C-alpha cells in the first residue's frame, strides 16, 4: 500500500515536473522575456517535428542513426562479451588485452575521426566504427569482472561433484556473471549512443546528430531542438529498456 | 608496408611532440583547454554536490527533478554541443558549459545515491542523542556519502575532459581540441596522435589521482 502510494506520487511529481518545464518554456517566450531565436518554444518544436515526420525526413534520420547504432553496438556486444569471457578464462589474454582496454576507455576516440574518415570513408562506416570502439571496452571490462567475481566456492563445489568445463560455463559461470554483463550492456548503450551522435556531428551526411549540427550551423534553433528532443527520447527509451532487462535478470539473486 | 599517412609511426609521433612542445602556441592551447576544464568541472562540483545533497534529503524535490536529470543522463551530453554554441558562442564559455554539463550529471546521480544509502539507524541514533539537523548533516550524512561523491567526481571527470576536447573540435579558436581538428583535417597523423596521447594521459592521470584518493578513504581502520 505504502509502496503503491509512493510510486504514484513519484509518477505524478515527474509529470508535474515535465509539464512545468514545458509551460515555463512556452510562457517565457510568449511573454517576450526570452528571445525565441535562442530557445525556440515547445509549440514551434512540436510543429517542426510533425512537419519533419510528414516529409519523411525524421523517419529517414532515425532509420540511419538506428541502423548505425544497431550494427556498431551489436558488433561490440559480440566482440566485447567474447573478449571479456576469454580474458576471464585465460590470464594471458587478460594481461595482453588490459592495456588496450584502458587506452580505448580513456582516449577521446572522437579525435581519431579524421583518420577513420580516411580509412572507412565519410558517413555510415566511420560512425559505426566510432560506436563500436566507444562501447566495446565497457562491455568487455564488465564481462571480465563478472566472470572474475564468480564465487570460487561455487566452482569448487561443482568441480567436486564432477562438473566438466562445459557444465561449469553453462551452469555456474554464465548465470553468476550475467548481471554484471547486462550492467555492461546498459552502460555500453550510453557510450554507443554517444558514438552515433558525435560521429554524426562531425563525420556524416545524414542522421540525427548530423541534423542537429546542420540546423545548428544554419541557426535554425527550432529544428535543432526538435532533433535534440528525438535524441533524448531515444536515449531514455534505450536506457530504460536495458534497465528493465537488468532488473529482470537480477531478480533471482539473493542479496546478503 | 603501411602508408605512414594512415597510421604514422612511434618515432614520428615523438619527433612531432618535441617540435610541438617548443612552440608558444602549444603553451597557449594547453592553458586554454586546462582553464576551460578547471572552471567547468569546478562549477560542476560546487553546484552539483550541494544540489544533490538537497535532492537526497528531500523526497518531493527528488521526485520533481529526477525525471529531467535522468533524461539528460540518458542522452549523450555532447548532443547539446550545437545548441550551447548558439547560446554562448564559439569562445571559452561554450566549452566551460559542455564540461559542466558532462561533469555535473554523474556527480548528482552518485551523490544522491550516496545520501540515500546512508544507514538510517545512524541518523536515528544521532537524533535520539539530540543531534540537530545540522549536526546530522555534517557528522553523518556528509561523511557517509563521501565515497559516492568522489566516485561521481571520478566518473564526471572523464566526461568533462571529453566535453572540452570535443567542444573545441566542434567550434573554437584555440585549445588542444582545436589542434586535433586542424591536424586531423590536414591528415598530419603524427601531430594528431601526439595531441590525442597528451589528452589521454591527462585524463588517465586525473582519473587515477581521484581513484587513489578513493582508495585512501576506503581503507579500513580510518
What does this structure look like?
The complex is a heterodimer of chains A (256) and B (222). Chain A is mainly α. Chain A has a single domain (40-250), classed as MetI-like fold (Orthogonal Bundle). Helix content of chain A is 85%, strand content 0%. Chain A has helices at 2-30, 36-39, 42-55, 57-89, 91-106, 113-120, 124-148, 152-160, 165-203, 208-217, 221-250. The model of chain A has no long low-confidence stretch (mean pLDDT 85). Chain B has helices at 4-7, 10-21, 24-57, 59-74, 81-88, 92-117, 120-128, 133-170, 176-185, 189-218. The model of chain B has no long low-confidence stretch (mean pLDDT 85). Chain B has one domain (4-117, 148-215): Orthogonal Bundle (MetI-like fold). Chain B is elongated and about 75 Å long. With 222 residues, chain B is mostly helical. At the A-B interface, α1, α5, α6, α9 and α10 of A face α4, α5, α8, α9 and α10 of B.
Amino acid at each position: 500500500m505504502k509502496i503503491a502510494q509512493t510510486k504514484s506520487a513519484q509518477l505524478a511529481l515527474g509529470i508535474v515536473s515535465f509539464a512545468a518545464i514545458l509551460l515555463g518554456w512556452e510562457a517565457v517566450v510568449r511573454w517576450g522575456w526570452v528571445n525565441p531565436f535562442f530557445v525556440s518554444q515547445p509549440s514551434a518544436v512540436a510543429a517542426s517535428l510533425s512537419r519533419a515526420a510528414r516529409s519523411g525526413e525524421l523517419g529517414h534520420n532515425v532509420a540511419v542513426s538506428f541502423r548505425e547504432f544497431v550494427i556498431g553496438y551489436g558488433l561490440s556486444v559480440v566482440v566485447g562479451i567474447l573478449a571479456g569471457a576469454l580474458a576471464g578464462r585465460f590470464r594471458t589474454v587478460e594481461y595482453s588485452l588490459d592495456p588496450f582496454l584502458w587506452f580505448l576507455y580513456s582516449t577521446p576516440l572522437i579525435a581519431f575521426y579524421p583518420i577513420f574518415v580516411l580509412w572507412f570513408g565519410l558517413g555510415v562506416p566511420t560512425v559505426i566504427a566510432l560506436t563500436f570502439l566507444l562501447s566495446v571496452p565497457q562491455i568487455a571490462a564488465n564481462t571480465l569482472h563478472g566472470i572474475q567475481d564468480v564465487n570460487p566456492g561455487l566452482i569448487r563445489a561443482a568441480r567436486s561433484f564432477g562438473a566438466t568445463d562445459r557444465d561449469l560455463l553453462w551452469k555456474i559461470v554464465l548465470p553468476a556473471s550475467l548481471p554484471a554483463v547486462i550492467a555492461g550492456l546498459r552502460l555500453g548503450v550510453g557510450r554507443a549512443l554517444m558514438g552515433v551522435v558525435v560521429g554524426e556531428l562531425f563525420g556524416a551526411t545524414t542522421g540525427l546528430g548530423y541534423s542537429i549540427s546542420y540546423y545548428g550551423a544554419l541557426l535554425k534553433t527550432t529544428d535543432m531542438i526538435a532533433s535534440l528532443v528525438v535524441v533524448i527520447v531515444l536515449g531514455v527509451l534505450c536506457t530504460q529498456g536495458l534497465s528493465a532487462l537488468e532488473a529482470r535478470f537480477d531478480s533471482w539473486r539473493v542479496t546478503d | 608496408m603501411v602508408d605512414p599517412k594512415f597510421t604514422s609511426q612511434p618515432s614520428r609521433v615523438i619527433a612531432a611532440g618535441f617540435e610541438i612542445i617548443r612552440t608558444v602556441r602549444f603553451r597557449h592551447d594547453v592553458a586554454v583547454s586546462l582553464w576551460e576544464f578547471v572552471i567547468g568541472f569546478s562549477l560542476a562540483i560546487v553546484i552539483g554536490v550541494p544540489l544533490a545533497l538537497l535532492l537526497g534529503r528531500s523526497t518531493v524535490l527528488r521526485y520533481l527533478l529526477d525525471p529531467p536529470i535522468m533524461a539528460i543522463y540518458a542522452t549523450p551530453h555532447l548532443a547539446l554541443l550545437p545548441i550551447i554554441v548558439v547560446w554562448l558562442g564559439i569562445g571559452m564559455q561554450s566549452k566551460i558549459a559542455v564540461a559542466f554539463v558532462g561533469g555535473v550529471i554523474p556527480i548528482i546521480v552518485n551523490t544522491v545515491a550516496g545520501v540515500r544509502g546512508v544507514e538510517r539507524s545512524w541518523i536515528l541514533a544521532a537524533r535520539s542523542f539530540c543531534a540537530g539537523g545540522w549536526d546530522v548533516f555534517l557528522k553523518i550524512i556528509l561523511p557517509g556519502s563521501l565515497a559516492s561523491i568522489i566516485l561521481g567526481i571520478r566518473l564526471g571527470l572523464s566526461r568533462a575532459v571529453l566535453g572540452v576536447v570535443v567542444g573545441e573540435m566542434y567550434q573554437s579558436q584555440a585549445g588542444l581540441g582545436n589542434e586535433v581538428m586542424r591536424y586531423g583535417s590536414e591528415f598530419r597523423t603524427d601531430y594528431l596522435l601526439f595531441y590525442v596521447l597528451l589528452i589521454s594521459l591527462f585524463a588517465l592521470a586525473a582519473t587515477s589521482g581521484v581513484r587513489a584518493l578513493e582508495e585512501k578513504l576506503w581503507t579500513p581502520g580510518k
